[in-house]
Automatic annotation (TrEMBL):
Keywords: Antibiotic resistance, ATP-binding, Nucleotide-binding, Transport. The lineage of its organism: Bacteria, Bacillati, Actinomycetota, Actinomycetes, Micrococcales. PROSITE patterns: ABC_TRANSPORTER_1, ABC_TRANSPORTER_2. CDD domains: ABC_DR_subfamily_A (cd03230). It comes from Luteipulveratus flavus. It is a peripheral membrane protein. Residues 5-231 form the ABC transporter domain. GO terms for molecular function: ATP binding. This is ABC transporter ATP-binding protein. Signal peptide: none annotated.
Length: 300
């Protein structure tokens, strides 16, 4: 596969402080790539430089074989951008919004209905954008980014503030978009979202990439313990601590939780004691990797 995006030594400063500091990575053609980080980590600024919306102070970006800055008109028909905050035209229906966006790129008329169908808004075609729900507005925003059939799609926190049902519904749409051969670059605060959707992720904090790779590889590299939980009535705390392979144990109002890096003997011992009631086994996740790298301090 060829590289669709090449970023080398990217730097952006505001008031003398580097908010993007020597960032380098590539995104392959057809890849679903995630850029993850806390608030203020530099994710959106990095995307905006790749998209040609901001000028880098140093470093280079090559997008589809061309430099996006200075603003490159040849790239505009080949990229689709869904920003963090989307503003639609007042009092236009979903179909009219898409038609307006499509006309900027000379998209064929039939493309509008195709996109409404793709994003599940065919029955809302005549509804004004301001009357759509949050999830429907996000779908319309993505449709506007796709109406001209771009090669690369940039999505900046597309599921922010959506309820769980709307989020998972949108995941199906994003998988379908990527399945059509589009390169997708995503920023998100939801680690489960990145773990499910992305082929590779880069975790960025204070403007620097801390770790990059497939989510499963990053999780395996953490070597975090497994947490095994059973009903409190099924196993006492002293018994839990004495199990083979148990590193520690604790109890809350309903559960006994055992921590172990060798869960097999713990599970076998629980089975022998008939203490599997309410069994839950939780291994490390991408969220554990994220917190290990960026810390647990709250970022406003």
């Amino acid at each position: 596969m060829t590289d669709t995006i090449e970023v080398q030594g990217l730097v952006k400063r505001y008031a003398g402080k580097a908010v993007v500091d020597d960032v380098s990575f590539t995104v392959r053609e057809g890849e679903f790539f995630g850029l993850l980080g806390p608030n203020g980590a530099g994710k959106t600024t990095t995307l905006e430089m790749i998209e040609g919306l901001r000028r880098p102070d140093a470093g280079s970006v090559v997008l589809l074989g061309e430099a996006p800055w200075p603003r490159n008109p040849r790239l505009l028909p080949r990229i689709g951008v869904q920003l963090q905050a989307t503003a639609f035209f007042d009092r236009l229906t979903a179909r009219e919004q898409l038609s307006t966006f499509g006309s900027l790129y000379d998209a064929p008329a039939g493309r509008v209905d195709e996109m409404l169908e793709l994003v599940g808004l065919a029955d809302k075609a005549g509804t004004q954008a301001e009357k759509l729900s949050g999830g429907q507005s996000q779908r319309l925003s993505i449709a506007c980014a796709l109406v001209h059939d771009p090669d690369v799609v940039f999505l900046d926190e597309p599921t922010a503030a959506l309820d769980p049902q709307a989020r998972r519904n949108l995941w199906d749409l994003l998988r379908e978009i990527n399945g059509r051969g589009k390169t997708v670059v995503l920023t998100t605060h939801y680690m489960d979202e990145a773990e499910i959707l992305c082929d590779r992720v880069a975790i960025i904090d204070e403007g620097r990439i801390l770790r990059m790779g497939p989510p499963a590889d990053l999780v395996r590299g953490l070597s975090a313990p497994t947490r095994i939980s059973v009903e409190r009535a099924a196993l006492g705390l002293d018994d839990a601590r004495s199990l083979p392979g148990a590193e520690s144990a604790e109890q809350d109002a309903t559960s006994t939780v055992i921590t172990s890096r060798t869960p097999a003997p713990v599970l076998a011992a629980l089975a022998e004691r008939d203490a599997l009631a309410g069994l839950q086994v939780r291994g490390a996740t991408l969220e554990d990797v994220f917190l290990e790298l960026t810390g647990r301090a709250y970022r406003a």
